[in-house]
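Predict structure. Chain length: 444.
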Amino acid sequence: MESGLTVRKREDKSVMEKLRILSDAAKYDVSCSSSGVGRRGDGTGIGNTLAAGICHSFGADGRCISLLKILFTNECIYDCKYCINRKSNDVPRASFTPDEICELTIQFYRRNYIEGLFLSSGILHSPTYTMELIYEAVYKLRTFYRFQGYIHVKAIPGADPGLVERMGLLADRMSVNLELPTAEGLKQLAPNKHRKSILWPMRQIQQGITQSKNEIMVYKHAPSFVPAGQSTQMIVGATRESDYQIMMVAENLYQKFDLKRVYYSAFISVNEDKDLPALPEGPPLLREHRLYQADWLLRFYGFEAKELLSEKKPNFNVLLDPKADWALGHLEQFPVEINKADYRSILRVPGIGVKSAQRIVRARRNGNLGFDDLKKIGVALKRALYFITCNGKMMYPTKLEENYIARNLIDGKEKLPFDRDGMTYRQLSLFDDVRAAGWKQMNA
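Prediction complete.
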């Protein structure tokens, strides 16, 4: 039982002190990239969400968009072993009030610091109690403050489904963190959380989105439910799942819950616990990077998880990106003749991304393409030249042999997300989607 003095000390914190604590506490949640949803202002309120611009790191027009990213509270009734905010940790605690959330958002927006809000939270008293406070903040922001910008809210597993439903009519995106890839991992490191309670709100949000789309088709002005879709996050490296297991889970989530994004967060050791892995070389950031690359292949390139990995080959190659590694293992499908191959085959060539493949299919209608044409289109010929022909000829005499191609691709020094010192990998930040888009094309 807390003393009255302790409670008063927490209540006496200034809004700026709370902001410092709760923005820092939110940095471990990487799943708050927005998606370009269109929520146009009606002229009576503040802010708007345009499909051309609202994206945490890049929009369709390339603009970088910033969100106010905070926790409602870092108080928590749970004791997850990997979490800095677990109840057994002695860390500074703070909680906003709904009105403070509203004032912060509006003041930051008016100063042109942000264009949207990402709001997550620890669990204060109970999931339903916490969700009620978050709902009150978002409801006031939308109605009393007339804020019509982008809002991403975490749905809290175990909260009253009615609150999740009402929140879905106010938020642009909602997400439910899967936390760890498997139920066994949750049991080991987060015994208060259960897979079924996490998947339940995911299913509810999915059904709400589907129902809303159907109603809008019939009634044009029907209310929109979570128009930017839902996402989730998995911690990578805290438990012993292989890359194959993680990708199978991600694929299952995309297929069964219609998720927009699965985010992968390299485990960062912030607590001392015998059940947590030792990380002598730091967080598994290169592994996180490979998972993101593979995720692009699932979402945009038509790959299945079982094509990229298997039980016999459970983890990604640290030296090669997943697409190049797959191509080296399937050389019988190459070389691909650019002027005759179908779109799917062209898309699987290392060095050719989605936009380049689309341009190739369009451009060859006007005549056969050569290597100079491919370069203009945007194909990374340094990677693609081993896997393609133009008019039956390769760019240079080369051997279609695994070790030979692998040596040349590795010598190409794939660009990875380095820290400023150029020596260590850094975790993908919330502003890295624009870089990820570049990596997708570069490492295609």
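Summary: Strands lie at 67-71, 116-120, 150-154, 173-175, 230-236, 261-266, 336-337, 388-389.
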